[in-house]
Structure formats: structure tokens, C-alpha cells
Amino acid sequence: MNASRSDLISALQQFHRRHFQSYQQQHHQPPTVEHDSDWPSPCEQGEVKNGETAHWQPVPCEPPLDFANIEQALELELHPDIKTYFGSFFCANLAAQASDGKLELLFPWSPEDFERLQENMLGHVWMKRQLRQQETVFFAVTDIDDVILSVVNSTGEIWAEKVGKKPHRKIAGSMTEFITSLEPVV
């Protein structure tokens, strides 16, 4: 595993741990999620309570999730940070605070959700190509309407962009730098 991949995995693990600890301190129990029998996840822990909620925690993907099909469809090699970020853990989406405001980090919840995520990635990159804009892959939504956070595929930089528009503001030089700067919101 190269240094960049291991650094990003470590940053994600630390953020997951801080989020989990903050949740437990505030709610006196592990994080819960509304159970959906149509979308089971390896993240769900123990029994579903009252048929409605389950405790959950991030679960490493072993082996890491594969992006060969999307790369082949796009005829594009995805930036390694994109593959590491989305391919290393099954996890619920997580709220966070960045220096510029609140956001929600998007993660695949299950293998089926990973397939849906890949379809959304394909649509996003194809839209960027039709608009003759640099290729980006979104990974977070913000509390500002229509503003998402994306990885610029060619550089790995993190940028804010309005849906359908060119990235308009650089947020961080890398995914590791960005994840390390976040504070959990529970």
C-alpha cells in the first residue's frame, strides 16, 4: 500500500473513531441508523430494535472495492484518492464541520449501494464531459444549496462546485488534508 493510500485510510479511520466517540459521549450509546430491510448493510451491528433502528459502525471493505468497471466505462483511470475514499469502508453518511461550514460525507453503505454510487459517478463524469469541464467526482454535499465537494480527477485537489458548473473554490490540496481538517457533527 503506498503512502498516500495508507495516509488517507488512517485519516478516515481517525475521523470515524472521533465521530463514533462523539456520538457515544452525546447519546450514551453507539450510533444508530434507521433499518431498511431493502438496504441491509454489513455496518449494522446486533439486532434491529423495534424493527426500526440498528446500531452501526464503519466496516473495512476486504478486499477494497473495485472500480475497474467504471474506469473501463469512462475510459479513465480514477484518481487513487477517489478509489481509496469510496473503496475502503462501508459506512453511513457522516456529518462534519469544515472551516467553511457543515457538510455530509458520502460513503457506500453496502455492496448494492456501491453499485448505485458508481452509476451516479458515471452520470456526473459524463455530465462534466458534455459541459467540457474538467472531470471531478463528488464525495460530499454541503449545507449550501447545489454546492457539492469534489475531487478533481487529474490532481486529487478538493474543490467546491455547484452542480453542473465548473469548480469554483479550492478547499484542500488532497483528500487526506481535507479529512484531517474536519470535526465530527453528531
Automatic annotation (TrEMBL):
CDD domains named in the record: Syd (cd16323)
Top-level division of the source organism's lineage: Bacteria
Keyword Membrane: yes
Membrane topology: Peripheral membrane protein
Cell compartment(s), UniProt: Cell inner membrane
Similarity section: Belongs to the Syd family.
Protein name: Protein Syd
